[in-house]
Every structure is written in structure tokens, then in C-alpha cells.
Amino acid sequence: MGKSQRKGKVGELELSHELNAMDLPGPKFRRGRQYAGHPDAPDIVGGPPDLHWECKRCERVQIKQWMAKAVEDAGDKKPIVAFRWNGGEWLAVVRLADLKELAASIAGKVE
Question: Fewer CB within 10 Å: N-end or C-end of the chain?
Fold first, then answer.
């Protein structure tokens, strides 16, 4: 496993722990199955079922590319890009058009 892959794995584990600490509705968060050769799987699974998580642990922020990939991979789910750089805090980016439904989903009020 290369340095970049290790950093990605560690980032996915960190993010899943951070999300689990928030006690959001739905199953516990964990790494997705992309590590087993499934590129269409989300980086993080769990939580509200209508969300698709893309996790990035990079120094160079590329929101446009990351969100485009998340949207492509999300299907009918709401894409969320979570990222952090070395020494930084986790940040999450969502499309403004998804914000109202996302807030309801996270609050456990999925309709």
C-alpha cells in the first residue's frame, strides 16, 4: 500500500470515527468497500441511507473535482464531500440545493 493509499485509509477511518461520535441516525459509519476493488462504493457507509460520502485527506483542495466525482457516484443519494488537510479540522461540502433535505435526513426526519 502506497503512502497516498495509507493516508486515504487513515482519513476514512478518522472520518468514520468522527461521524460516529455525532450519533447521527442510521447504522454506524465505517469505511466503504472501495478498498476491496469496488470503485463505485462510497468512501464511508452508514448513517442516513440517502447520503453518499466522499472522503479526501489532501493538502491541495480540489472541491470542483471532488464534488463532480461524488455527484457521479451518488446516483439518487445526496453527495457530501468531507475533507481535511494536515493539522486541519474536518470540513463537509454539500450542494446548496440538497441542504434542506440533508438537514432533515440528519435530524432523523427522512420522509
Answer: C
Distance CA 4, CA 1 (A): 8
**Phi and psi at residue 109, to the nearest 5°:** -110, 40
The residues that bridge with 93 in the sheet, in sequence order, are 81
Query: Taking the model in full, what pTM does it have?
Result: 0.82
pLDDT averaged over every residue in the chain: 85
Residue 33 DSSP one-character state: S
Alpha helices in 1-111 (DSSP H): 3-21, 63-74, 99-106
Residue matched to cell numbers 488537510: 85
Q: Are 91 and 82 in contact (CB under 8 A)?
A: yes
Inter-residue contact 32 to 52 (CB < 8 Å): no
How far, in Å, are 5, 85, 100 from residue 57 at the CA level?
10, 6, 27
